[in-house]
Amino acid sequence: LIAGLFGNNIGRSGEHTVTILGVAASAVLSAYVLYGFIEGSRGKYDENVYTWLTMGGLDFSVGFLVDRLTAMMMVV
């Protein structure tokens, strides 16, 4: 997002640096989450952000679920 919006201002090497740092940070955080599941110190994360639609007895919610499979897929 930063590289796309401010690309003209930060130059080509700045775009590359921002993009590489973003990917590296994502990889490190994903590995940290996976390590927590492998070690056993982290349980699954299941939270609803908001309810998108309520119709009768049905609730359609938007949320996040991070379990062992999700953590593995974030690393891969």
Quick tags:
76 residues; alpha+beta; 2 strands
Précis, in short:
The protein is of the alpha+beta class and about 80 residues long. It has one domain. It contains three helices and two strands.
How would you characterize the overall build of this protein?
The protein has one domain (2-75). Helix content is 59%, strand content 26%. The chain has helices at residues 2-5, 7-39, 68-75, and strands spanning 45-55, 58-66. It is an alpha+beta fold and 76 residues long. The two termini are 22 Å apart. Strand 1 (45-55) and strand 2 (58-66) form a beta hairpin. Helix 2 crosses helix 3. The mean pLDDT is 88. It has a two-stranded antiparallel sheet.
As a percent range, the share of strand residues is 25-35%
Give the H and E element order: HHEEH
Q: Within the largest sheet, what's the order of strands? A: 1-2
Distance between the termini: 22 Å
Main sheet, how many strands, which sense, barrel? 2 strands, antiparallel
Tally of separate helices: 3
Per-chain topology:
Blueprint lengths: L1 H4 L1 H33 L5 E11 L2 E9 L1 H8 L1
Antiparallel strand pairs: 1-2
Helix pairs in contact: 2-3
Pfam family, one: Proton_antipo_N
Keywords: Membrane, Transmembrane, Transmembrane helix
Main location: membrane
